[in-house]
Design a protein that fits this description.
Layout lengths: L2 H22 L4 E4 L2 E6 L4 E4 L5 H11 L15 H47 L11 E5 L7 H8 L16 E5 L6 E8 L3 H11 L3 E3 L2 E2 L1 E4 L19 H14 L17 E5 L4 H6 L3 H16 L3 E6 L8 E5 L2 H11 L3 E2 L2 E2 L1 E4 L12 H38 L1
Antiparallel strand pairs: 1-2, 2-3, 4-6, 4-9, 5-6, 7-8, 10-12, 10-15, 11-12, 13-14
GO biological process, one term: mRNA splicing, via spliceosome
Keywords: mRNA processing, mRNA splicing, Repeat, RNA-binding
Protein name: RRM domain-containing protein
Length: 405
């Protein structure tokens, strides 16, 4: 018999022995080549049944070694001599670099100034230049009636997009051509859009528009031509970097998407109520102390009936006699307007309304009004001081009379 046949027989005998041991004892456990095995139901295979104890760990470490965490171990320090030499070399190199950077900075400044001077000179020599059609967002329109104005022109051209605004004046960049004699519109003009797509829409939609029975609009891309000689003194100055950045940010905000406000939305400014006719300037001039009493009485009345007052302001120089009362919410302000509007107090009709957030009530007084107010205030102080002095004298006299008695 060959050697392979003998080995096969031995393996068969071992299998028979394991089957016998498993059949006699637990069917899920057996011994294979001296190693106890357990049947794993989930993986459907025999796995070694090894208990992790001290003997097993000693056997494992002896055969496979111990895994060290080399990152957590302290790193060996380099020799001190090498470290000192390295620091000296770094110091020398750093000193050399600083000297070079100063020289390089001066050279760069000179080169930048030279380039700027060259470009500025070339720009002045060039003077007039042709605008690229891909960047030209200006259209030329004619066929309008002679009685058209800038407002109607802007409204008509806005049908196809947002009109660009002048960064200096904030007005739309449009121009209606007028006659030199009377300054009347000729019926044509130019309009500059923000987006290039607006130009395409204007050429498709506005070109051929029937303004009325006698006027038909024609729109085309604007072409600028130099008439006469170029005068550099009339050319507008360029925007600075900060001005250009601010202008572009404002322009981008126009196209930002914002959710629509709800129908019952109320502005924060409507929490403030404007009360007109609360006093007259003559009353304030005659009795300046009325400012404090009127302000306190108004605040007490509003807090008792409508809600907590956050702020109250009396505009003593306003001829309409204005007092503004600010609440925490709009409901309290609406209740104040409904209750006080049209009410007659001291022969005056009070007009109450919500503040629109734009109207200003503080008025600059004239020199005569200021002098009159100062005189009235000095008289009030003198009267109050004299009355206080008389009161003190009367107290002293009473004290003397009591002592004599």
């Amino acid at each position: 018999m060959d050697k392979t046949e003998i080995e096969l027989k031995d393996e068969q005998n071992n299998i028979d022995e394991t089957q016998q041991t498993s059949s006699t004892s637990d069917p899920y456990k057996c011994v294979w080549n001296g190693v106890p095995m357990t049947w794993n139901v989930t993986s459907q295979q025999w796995l070694p049944d090894i208990e992790v104890n001290e003997d097993f760990l000693a056997y494992y470490n002896a055969n496979y070694g111990i895994q060290y965490d080399y990152d957590s171990m302290p790193k060996p320090e380099p020799p001190k001599v090498l470290k000192e030499e390295k620091t000296e070399e770094e110091g020398k190199s750093k000193k050399g670099v600083t000297k070079l950077t100063k020289e390089q900075k001066q050279l760069k400044k000179r080169e930048a100034r030279k380039r700027w001077a060259e470009t500025e000179a070339a720009r002045r020599e060039q003077g007039w230049f042709e605008m690229d059609e891909e960047k030209n967002t200006t259209v030329y329109a004619d066929g309008f009636p002679s009685n058209i104005d800038e407002e109607e022109f802007v409204k008509f051209m806005s049908k196809c997009g947002v009109i660009q605004k002048d960064p200096r004046t904030g007005k739309p960049k449009i121009k209606l051509y007028r006659t030199k004699e009377g300054g009347e519109p000729k019926g044509d003009g130019t309009c500059c859009y923000v987006k290039m797509e607006s130009v395409e829409l204007a050429l498709q939609i506005l070109d051929g528009w029937q303004w009325d029975s006698a006027h038909k609009i024609h729109v085309e891309r604007a072409k600028f031509e130099l008439k006469g000689e170029f005068d550099p003194t009339k050319k507008r100055q360029r925007l600075s970097g900060a001005q250009k950045k601010k202008f572009l940010e404002k322009q981008e905000k126009i196209f930002q998407w914002k959710p629509d406000k709800p129908r019952n939305f109320r502005n924060r400014c409507e929490c403030t109520v404007v009360l007109r006719g609360m006093f007259s300037l003559e009353e304030i001039d005659q009795k300046p102390e009325k400012i404090f009493s009127l302000k306190e009485d108004t605040q007490k009345l509003c807090e008792q009936r409508f809600g907590i007052v956050k702020k109250i302001v009396l505009y003593e120089s306003n001829p309409e006699g204005v007092i503004t009362v600010t609440y925490d919410n709009v409901e309290q302000a609406d209740a104040t307007v409904a209750a006080l509007n049209g009410r007659i107090v001291a022969g005056r009709e009070i007009k109450a309304s919500n503040w629109d957030g734009k109207e200003k009530f503080k008025r600059q007084e004239t020199e005569e009004e200021r002098k009159r107010r100062e005189n009235a205030w000095t008289e009030f102080l003198e009267e109050s001081s004299s009355s206080s002095d008389e009161g003190e004298k009367q107290k002293d006299d009473n004290n003397l009379n009591d002592k004599e008695k």
